[in-house]
Amino acid sequence: MAHVAVSTSGAAVGDGPPAALERPDFQIVPRAGLPIVAVVLGLLIAGIAVDKLWPLEFLHVVGGAAWTVIDLFLGFVLGPIIGRLSIPARVEFTTRLMPKMVLIMPTVVTVTLAAGWQLGTKLGTVQTSYHLHGWVVASYIVVGVMAVIALGLLEPANIAVLVEMKKPRPNLEVIERLMKRFIYTAGATGLMQVATFVIMTRLAAG
Amino acid sequence: MSERRLPPVTQVGMASLALIVAGGIYLSAHLPNHVSLGPAIALLATSALLLAGNLAVLARVHGFPWRRFFEIARWALVAYVIIAGMIEYAFLRNHLSGGPLVVLTLSLVVFAVHVPVLIGFTVARYQES
Predict the structure, then answer these.
(1) In principle, which of A65, A73, A75, B43 could form an S-S bond with A190, CB 3.0–4.6 Å?
(2) pTM of this prediction?
């Protein structure tokens, strides 16, 4: 992969950046991943269309597991590690991680929620007559709060970091600020995922 | 880093999304019973007003980098229209109809427009003019 030397004018972060940073060339939206996203969304459409238990359960559980694990891992494991990396390492890591997140997270969230709704409709768990209806509504609220945080703060920060890094002279202070926002919001949604664990295991227990 | 003063687009956008989500939860929590659409319509209307207000206030910002904004927001719009379309498909597949379908569809429209606005704004605010 090509590397580009980046002048780091306009910012002093941490112990002070070097005069130039090696920055891997990257695409904000990795085009190679788009066919994979299309296949996953195609599977989702097929799963909802056939309305069978196994495909819906597969899509909901696999999507939900991926969503939960990524949030927790990013917020509580990778986040603190990224914060302690040197500036060049942080820049390189970010340029490799963030474009993938642009595709992975919206896809995983869409699959989990759409398949989950269809599954709930099929099993009758979304209906008010379901004996654990309160728990189901609680899951809506948790997911709703996570969605607002992710859509309003996390996703825009993700894109903005990548656009800033694409500039000939990226401002490291802007990147630092946006990365902090990204990691903190990932941590917040990670915490809320613990509530999702509690609710989903309660629902599975019946 | 000197940063230009801008209206609270992100905060207002998040409030708008929260209202949409609240309306969706309100409707979903009452299925399949008949539910009064009043609260959901009020939440949707307030959310749409916040979206319109956000755009109006942003339009008055002198020297805002609209080119960068649209460059990003249009692709985000494509992505979020697809996502909203998937959710709409799930509604239609489950034979949702009438008032709830209209309210939820309009909610998806606000969602599919406001998220790209937030993404475009967050990117454009750091664009050097």
Answers:
(1) A75
(2) 0.84
